Amino acid sequence: MRSLLQPPARNALSWIGRIDPRARLVLAMAFSVLIAMADRFVVLTAAIGVMLCVTAFSGLSLRLVVGRLLLLNGLLLPLILLLPLTTAGTPLSVIGPICPTREGLLLGLTVALKANGIMLTLLSLLGSMDATTLGHALSHLYVPNKLTLLLLMTVRYLDVLHAETLRLRSAMTIRGFRPQMDGHTYRTYGYLIGMLLVRSFERSQRVVAAMKCRGFRGKFYLLDHFAFSRRDLWFCVTSTVVLFTLALLQWR
Amino acid sequence: MTEPLIRFHDVDFAYGSAGDRSARPVLHECNFRLDPGQRVALVGPNGSGKTTLLHLVVGLLRPTSGRIEAFGRTRREEADFHEVRRRVGLLFQDSDDQLFCPTVAEDVAFGPLNLGQSRDEVHRTVAETLGMLGLSDYADRVTHKLSGGEKRLVALATVLAMRPEVLMLDEPAAGLDVEATERLVEVLAQLPQTMMIVSHDREFLDRTTTGTIDLPGLPRKDRR
Question: The whole model's pTM is what?
Fold first, then answer.
């Protein structure tokens, strides 16, 4: 959440970070769709290779990338272990009543490769973008105003909500509240969540009032416009070529 | 005699629908006028309807009965208040309610963009407004990371960017330290607008206003 809310300092922008966010967004979509649809190992491994290169220029720390991938693969592990056992096909070997199949193993590997490929794509192209920029880019790509507004407002008020939760929590703590496994604790948490909802609702009404006072009538105008530079063009052309090569490899 | 900017004629207001037993009356037969150039303090006990009165002026709330006149015309419908909101700037009690854009510049630009200014004009308005309040370095700062005093001044900038004729400030000094309050007093002293200030801080009011409107609040038995 921290990395989402804290935009990188302007001078610390990486090579990928300086590419037009709209281009990155469209390319991330295109690559994700391709990886999701592809099923040849050559294509999937090639896509992962390309995305690893892009990640290297995205300015993300190795720690963060490895951390995210470990988390993802941890979630995938049960699937990869179970698929060979539950898919019908040629048996690899028979260990007592357990009989893993070749088809199942390949299916599990495909799923894992796809998931890692898409994760790398999103991390490298979108992960280096702060949420505000993402909202603006979406808005420029004609995503409905209400949705982008929702995203921008969420980003803005997440911190306020968090601060409110902390205030309420400390108000509870100073009166000796210790969370335990009992009715009192559950009821108290119920009150806490209820109070947060009520306060958020009231705040949302005050925010709308403040917006109306400044002439808001339903349309959210954007101040910054993105500039599409020569470098962005080159990046798009190169990526499109890579994209088509991968597609050719898959469906030739 | 000059035409008043804002005038209330026997305005009644209650929270909740009329006839409802849980309705809570706040204002009863409220009359006042605000003339050009005046700087008045709006004082009264908690719950006497000071904030309600400010919200009635800009049409965020509608009176139960009575008549509100602003800039020489009676205002009743939502559409009537669009013009009032442009000419009356309201500073909210909690600046977090008012600052909802990611960066200071975008927040200050929000009003002018809604008014239909061109991009060049908006950039100029933002730069001028921030410059006027000595906030030029804040343009790219993230709003929710500002301190309380900074938030209050930026919120004031967002209101001033609309170039209002009247400023209504709801507890502008609440929660500010001595230094931030001092800065606010200086800023307010330089502004040309007609002002109406709600505050419980007598000293702050003495330094910023010249007249007083007293809202006595309803007798206890009516307040429930």
Answer: 0.70
